[in-house]
Design a protein that fits this description.
The protein is mostly helical and 302 residues long. Strands 3-4-5 form a 3-stranded antiparallel β-sheet. It starts with a helix and ends with a helix. Forms a cyclic heterotetrameric complex composed of two molecules of XerC and two molecules of XerD. Keywords: Cell cycle, Cell division, Chromosome partition, Cytoplasm, DNA integration, DNA recombination, DNA-binding. It is found in: Cytoplasm.
């Protein structure tokens, strides 16, 4: 069995059997491609079936010099899953990573913005900004408001469709990881900003494959993930905010602010689209001072 054939089979398995999205499949494949490149560069002819733990250890040692512990752990986990798949398909009987330990890493707490930070970033947007006759300032405000008000992943935002908007019911339909769909509440303020953008969008010559996409560039095409990152990066620089902010920061802030204001963890899990509530529980560690205040206020043994 050749490496690229094995990788292609694995990607097919992730798509059909696991129901993963294209982005997730690419992430799973990334570290396997690194291993393949390492073998090619060093003229090593071992196949996915014959490669042993010694060679895998050499590769991990080689590549880990430039990786932090978290990235090393992800690398090892990704390769372990790949070889588990080969065992599942009866190509191998052992996993060469079984005896390789992942580096110990602390639990990374998500970065968050305060409500004042978010207000600052949104107020920094030039609502009169136009490019090629299209008002992109209003679009950018609608994007930030949607990220924060609905807790979306950036991939969910750029794939949001006009047909996913159920404003009369107060919800939007979101397609998340593994193409799993969920309904997320959306407030009137954010609805209004989206409606303003929709009225501008009506004057754009939309490309055929983006007819139902909500957020477009001036060419009438769906926005890329990189473009959303760029929009936010420029706003952060312009605002003078001294924080590392990405689209995901708005999602973290959405969950944190809900929890701080008394929202039920299970409800937050459903809105975020987390498969396991243990993923959502990380927000319980974000603001310990708030939890202490809750205890002091509501528990009889203060």
């Amino acid at each position: 069995m050749k490496w690229y054939n094995a990788l292609k089979d694995y990607q097919h398995y992730l798509k059909i059997e696991r129901g993963l999205s294209s982005n997730s499949i690419e992430n799973y494949s990334y570290d396997i491609k690194k291993l393949i490149n390492y073998l090619v560069e060093n003229t090593i002819s071992e196949s996915p079936i014959s490669i042993d733990d010694t060679l895998v250890k050499e590769f991990i040692y080689h590549i880990s010099k430039s990786l932090n512990p978290r990235s090393q752990a992800r690398l090892i986990s990704g390769l372990r899953n790949f070889f588990d798949y080969l065992i599942f398909e009866n190509y191998r009987t052992t996993n060469p990573l079984d005896l390789i330990e992942s580096p110990k890493i602390g639990r990374k707490l998500p970065d968050t913005l305060s409500v004042e930070d978010i207000d600052l970033l949104i107020s920094t947007i030039d609502l009169s900004y136009q490019y090629q006759g299209i008002n992109l300032g209003e679009r950018n405000r609608a994007i930030l408001e949607t990220l924060y008000s609905c807790g979306l992943r950036v991939s969910e935002l750029i794939n949001l469709k006009l047909s996913d908007l159920f404003f009369d019911e107060g919800f939007i339909k979101v397609t998340g990881k593994g193409d799993k769909q969920r309904f997320v509440p959306i407030g009137k303020t954010t609805q209004n900003y989206i409606m303003i953008w929709k009225s501008i969008r009506n004057h754009i010559a939309v490309q055929p494959n983006s007819k139902d996409i909500l957020f477009l560039n001036y060419k009438g095409k769906k926005l890329t993930r990189a473009m959303v990152f760029t929009i936010i990066k420029k706003l952060v620089e312009k605002s003078g905010l001294k924080k590392n902010v990405s689209p995901h920061t708005f999602r973290h802030s959405f969950a944190t602010h809900l929890l701080e204001n008394g929202a039920d963890l299970r409800a937050i899990q459903m809105m975020l689209g987390h498969e396991s509530i243990t993923t959502t529980e990380i927000y319980m560690h974000v603001d310990r001072s708030h939890l202490s205040e809750v205890l002091n206020k509501y528990h009889p043994r203060k």
